[in-house]
Write a structure and sequence with these properties.
Elements: E1 3-6, H1 11-23, E2 29-30, H2 33-37, H3 40-43, E3 48-51, E4 54-57, H4 61-68
Parallel strand pairs: 1-2
Antiparallel strand pairs: 1-3, 3-4
Length: 71
């Protein structure tokens, strides 16, 4: 499973997703700002997670558990 994390400009939402990835020790790639700028017209200010090519914008904890199959 390939997981890429796109941090958003909304710090509270971004820290929730980043905290989830750390808590459940999900191996992920943090997308650099140069790459992120190409996606901003799709994502806006919200953080996003890309899992095996599927983009999930502003997922909550319950959604992340289902997307990443963790308990």
């Amino acid at each position: 499973m390939t997981v890429r994390f796109f941090p958003g400009s909304l710090k509270h939402k971004t820290s929730l997703v980043a905290g989830f990835l750390r808590q459940f020790r999900v191996e992920h790639e943090l997308v650099r700002s140069e790459e992120y700028k190409a996606y901003t017209h799709h994502l806006g200010e919200d953080p996003a997670v890309e899992v095996d090519g599927r983009m999930f914008v502003d997922p909550n904890v319950d959604a992340l558990k289902k997307i990443l199959n963790v308990d």
